[in-house]
Design a protein that fits this description.
With about 180 residues, the chain is mainly α. About 70% of the residues lie in helices and about 0% in strands. α1 packs across α2.
Length: about 180
């Protein structure tokens, strides 16, 4: 006999005799022509072919394993994969329910709304300057209680009022431009 018997290999590897028999049938052991087991070659083949989790369970714990066949790194990777898959499913459910929106689309909508608001404010002074000038002249007449005479007349030109309004509106818009929308 050149190699070990199943009993000897069982004692050598720390596996049960049934586990050795299953490994032999599955082709994870190197067997000599006389049927004995080549221990060194079988250990190497089992390390390549066997799931680290299976190795840990077959020996009854984590003792004796370190390095590339370390089952803790395998278990950590499996746990991380399971957590990732659960999070992915949760996101898919939230998306279906409408609780989640596309970030790029939301940012584009916010930008478009801000641009529209800015455009309305930029054109506002030109639309209201003449009305405001007329209202100021009317208010001066009311306050004095007399019609405005040419020597007391304060004429506010719409163009001047428009320039003043535009200056104040642009200052306000510049202050608003510093606001940043954070969607993250």
């Amino acid at each position: 006999m050149k190699g070990m018997s199943e009993r000897d290999y069982s004692a050598h590897s720390g596996l049960s005799r049934g586990a050795v028999q299953r490994a032999r049938k599955a082709g994870r052991l190197v067997v000599h022509q006389d049927g004995s087991i080549n221990a060194a070659a079988s250990d190497a083949r089992r390390a390549e072919m066997t799931d680290p989790d299976q190795q840990r369970r077959s020996t009854g714990g984590d003792a004796g394993f370190s390095g590339p066949a370390d089952s803790s790194s395998y278990l950590k990777a499996r746990t991380a994969l399971t957590v990732y898959q659960a999070q992915e499913r949760q996101l898919a459910i939230q998306k279906k329910k409408g609780a989640l929106v596309d970030r790029a689309r939301a940012e584009a909508l916010v930008f478009r709304l801000a641009r529209q608001e800015r455009d309305v404010w930029v054109t506002w002074p030109a639309r209201v300057a003449a009305l405001m000038a007329a209202e100021v002249a009317t208010e001066v007449e009311k306050q004095s209680g007399q019609p405005v005479r040419p020597e007391r007349l304060v004429i506010i030109e719409a163009a001047i009022l428009q320039r003043v309004l535009e200056t104040h509106v642009r200052a306000q818009l510049d202050a608003l431009a510093d606001l940043r929308v954070s969607l993250g």
